[in-house]
Amino acid sequence: MIIAIDGPSGAGKSTLGKMIAKELDLLYLDTGAMYRAVGLAVSISGTDIRDREEIIEITKDAEIALVGKPDKLRVLLDGIDVSSEIRTNEIGQMASVVSTISEVRASLVE
Q: Is 101 helix (H, G, I), strand (E, B) or coil?
């Protein structure tokens, strides 16, 4: 079973998703955190957020892992816990941009 929850940043999608996953004993996949990790990788690299091709390459090269239970999920970027760093407004805005790139979306769900 796959349940997708869509909506703007800060709307409570993750909170609702975690509650549903726990109640139904399902795997919780926080794609928002994954996009935020890509946004952080782009920020760290100094790449212009409008450089679509470079963002695609960064996404392909990045190792993103979600570790732990839904209520205590940690996000690893290239082996480093970035769970706190990805929750800033700046990274949220970058995540909104990178999530519109179809190749980024495809790379994250491989």
A: coil
Tens-digit pLDDT profile for residues 21-64: 889 988 888 888 999 999 999 999 999 999 999 999 999 999 99
**Spatial separation of the C-alpha atoms in residues 19 and 27, rounded to whole Å:** 11
CB neighbours (10 Å) of residue 71?
A: 11
What are residue 74's DSSP bridge partners? Answer: 67
Phi, psi of 109, rounded to the nearest 5 degrees: -100, 5
Listed residue (77, 79, 78, 65) closest to 30, CA to CA:
65
Taking the C-alpha atoms of residue 37 and residue 43, their distance in angstroms, rounded to an integer, is: 10
- Percentages helix, strand, coil for the chain, rounded to the nearest 5? 55, 10, 35
User: Rounded to whole angstroms, how far apart are CA atoms 11 and 62?
Assistant: 27
Alpha-carbon span 96 to 73, nearest angstrom: 21
Per the document, the length of the chain is: 110
Q: Which CATH class is domain 13-108?
A: alpha beta
